[in-house]
Each structure stands twice: as C-alpha cells, then as structure tokens.
Amino acid sequence: MTLTSIRTRAETPAATRASAAKVYTPYSGWFYLPSAIIYGVLFIVPTFASLYFSLTRWSLFESKFIGLENFKLFFSEPQLVKGFTNTLIFAVVTSGSKVVLGLLLAVLLTSQIVARGYLRSVVFFPVLVSTIGVGITFTVLMNPDHGLINGGLSALGIDGPGWLTDPKYALLSVAAVDIWKGVGLATLIYIAGIVSIPREYLEAARVDGASSWETFRRIVLPLSRPATVTVIILSLIGGLRSFELIWAMTRGGPGFTSDVIASVIYKQYQAGFYGLSTAGNVVLFIAVTAIVLPLSYFLNRKEVDL
Amino acid sequence: MSTAELVNHKPGRNYLLSAVAIVVSIVVFIIPFAFIVLTAVKDRQQAASLDFSWPHQLRIVQNFVEVVKARDYMLVIAFINSTILTVASVAGMVVLAAMAGFVLQRRRSRWNGFINFLVLSGLIIPPAVVPTIWVLQKFGLFKTMPGLILIEIAFGLSFCVLLFRAFVATIPRELDEAATIDGAGPLRLFFGVIFPLLRSVIVTVVVVQSVAVFNDFTNPLYFLPGDQNATVQLTLYNFQSQFSTQYNLLFMNILLITIPPLIMFLFFNRQIVAGMTSGAIKG
Fold first, then answer.
1. Is residue A56 one of the residues assigned to a domain?
2. Which residue of A1, A68, A217, B62 sits 20 to 30 Å from the alpha carbon of B31, by its own alpha carbon?
C-alpha cells in the first residue's frame, strides 16, 4: 500500500527524469554500517575463526593444525563428556519446569486472586537480580549443616541431603535455583499470552457449561501455544549456555559432577588450552543449533496448522 | 479485568487459593531476600551461624563502611566502572540498533532475508570466547573498557534490533514521505522525526539492557580481567573468597549491588513487563 504510493509519486512527470538515474530513498543503507562493523568484527569473525581454531593447538599467538584431536579429546575425557550430558540435562530440566510452572503461575496470576499485583511483582523480581548474588545466597541457604533449607526441613522431621555437596543432587540443585530465578520471565510471557485470548471464547465456554478444567484444557492451553514456543526456545537457549549460576554455586563440583559445557570452556581457557576451549565452544554451538533450530521449525509449523 | 478470571469463576475458592499462594510466595521468595537483608546488618559472629534470626545489634552503617572500604575502595571503583560500562554500551545499542531496525523495516531489498538471518543468529549462537579475545588483542582492545563496551554492544544488538524493527512497523510511512517532501535528508528524517517517536521502545530497551549489562558477569570475567577493572559483579566473586567467613560483609555487598536493579524495577515495573513480553513474543 505505502510502497505503491511512493512509486506512483515517483512516476509523475517531474520526477521521472530524476528517478530514471537513481531512485531516491530516505532509508540509507549506511545506517546498517556501524552495527554491521561492530557485530561483524566482534561476533561473526570470532564465530568463523572458532571453526578453524578448534582444529588447532593454540597459544593465542601461534596455532598448529591438529585436525579433530581436540574433539576426540573432548569426547574421550569422562569429565568433558559429563559436561556435555549435564548441559543437556540442565537445559531440559530447567526449560520443562519453566513451561509447567510458568503456565500454572500465569493462570493463577490472571485469575481473581487477592494480592495479584504483589504476587506478580514477587515472582518477577528475581529475574532482575544479579545471578551471582542469587547463586551465593542459595549456596548459603543450601548449606547441609547450617543452611536454612535443611533447617526448615528438619523442623518438619525431614533429613535434607547435601544439596550442593552430594554429587547426585548438585546439578539438580543448581537447576532448581535457575528455575527459581527464571520462572518469572516464563510467567510473564504466559500472562501476555493468556490476556490476549479473546474473552468471547471463555464466555462461550462458560455458557456451554464447561468446567474450569475443560476451559483450561480446550481453550487456554491451545491458545497460549505461541507463548509456550517462546518459553521453550528462550529457556532452552539460556539453559544450554548457562554458566554464571553454576560457577557461583559449585564451580562444576563436587569433582566435575555439575560441570556444563560453558564451565568446561572457562576451565580450559583458564588452564591455557585455548584450542580445546574453542572446541568446547564449537560443540556448544552445534548442540544449540541442532536442538533449537529443528525444534523451533517444528513448533512453529505445528502452530500454523492449528 | 483479565480473561482468565472467567476460568476460575467460583468465587468462594479464591480466598483459600489466595492464602495458599501468599504463604508459598513468602516462603519461596520473600524469605531468601529477607535473609540477605538480615545477614547484611548482623555482626560477624552472628552472621557466621547463617540462621534466620533478628540481629543482636544492627550494624548497618559499620558493615556498609567496611564493605565500601575493603581492598582500597574496590567497590567504589567497581561501581564507577559498571556505570560507565552500562551507560556507554546501552547508549550505543539504542542508537545503532534503532538505525538498523528502522532501515531493516522500511527498506525492501534482497538483502533483508540475509540481514534478518544474521540478527536471529545473534540471539541463538553462543559467542566464541577465545577467538573474540584474539580479535580484541589484534585491535589492542583486550582488557580495556572500550573493548568490553563494544563486546556488550555486539552481543546485545540482535535483541534490540528485533524490538526496534517491530516498533517501527507501527509508525506510518506517510510521516517519512511528508518529512522527505519537506526536504529532510536521511539523517534528519531519522534523528529529527523517527527517533523521538521511538520513545516508549527506547525506554524498554534501556531498562532491559541496562539491567542485563549491569548484572553481566561472564563478559567482564573474560574480556576485562584484573582487580583495577572490576565491575560490581566481579567484586562479589572476589569477595566470596576473601570474606568466605565474613558473611555479613558478603551479603551487604550483594545488597548494595542489588539496589540499581531494584530502583529500575520500582520505577519501570510496568514498562519492563510490557517491553519484555512484546520483545520475547516477537523474538
């Protein structure tokens, strides 16, 4: 519509000669330039360089091509493999929990409930707080002997485990804190999705005598699908890349039982194995792409079918 | 107001549900924050027991002074560094992403598909850390504040471009045409006419990105190491080992660096919510 109006104006006799030489547009291509330079030099170039440097033994000054050795090493060291599987577990657990809890909280927080504003604020606030601060706080709260969590549990007669010191629980404890911190964002996205459902559908359902459960199951759940897609994709990307919380709470420990790829990358970087560290980056890159792209394609295609 | 209130239309049930929700929210969300505040104002001995008790003596001022003075006023330097980093990189993101988002929305060319692909890549692909350090070193920007500012801009651009592009679509094109007929060039059109109209989305970007940059730990850790260059998040990380037994000071430090996001939250609560949802759904 607007495009054609420009064109018709350009074809008035007076402008024809000018436009024949060059069509004038006020949307200059060089507006991209500053962004393109910064983004290209500091993001695109390193991304492509990582593909090469992951195949080398590298000291930042000189690199020696060694083929796929770094990747072989990565997948033969049990602790590095552990980092890989932990990353997948962490991402799936946090993402799945955020979908379920976010949806439940959003339904609760859009219903007629006392203190709705307070509850919305209190659920969302942790999203804004420093991840490291949250990590340190929960490390203290999860202390097996003095921590508030086990203190509270023992008051109820339950013997709490060593949340961060027991290899069985360390990764899942960090995942729980990640959910605590991030569920507010998922809730927010679901609230936006639920609020945009046309009232008529819900009224029609009520007139037809549908129960709350049926209304939720048949109307709210399918119609908040775009929100679900967003929450899944966002939290999967975040979960696969997760570093700060794990670093603040366990440093990948005890042993290397809660290491994820991002903490492996940092440890190898600290130890001076730049090639290996970069190979870790490439593994993360491939994992994120291999999971997120097909999933978002699949989820978005299904959405059109509805 | 909301649609889902119709879902729970049995009025009696809501009071019980509300009571349960409030109690759970206090246990799950309020107690951890209360714990931070209480521990931050205790004396060293009482803080070490890590319990949830009222402080024997309130040491608000003493603890505050001790944290600020620790390690040659490191926290003060860190606050200055973090402020410079946040202001400069968010300002850069806003201007550059607004320009790019504007042209990307308005101008139809065969490059659009490719540019959109690049923007989405920036959201999905994890940055390659060591090669980025390598590039920064080539330009002499490694371990410098300008280097870190450029990094934050590069990593934040994608999200901002998406927000701006979506918002520019709501500004009528007739406005551009009118300005162009009145003789405005590309620069005047953008900075004189369009940019002021982007106000609401600019506020959103500023709030969301300044919280993100201020709270960022990973990028300063990699790209700006060294005590002199510490940002506020790194002071926490340094303090953790130094004051591993001085929990009162550690938590006072956590409390202090939570204040800027808290202020943002209090002033822009509504705006953050609106911006994050629109950005997230469109992203």
1. no
2. B62
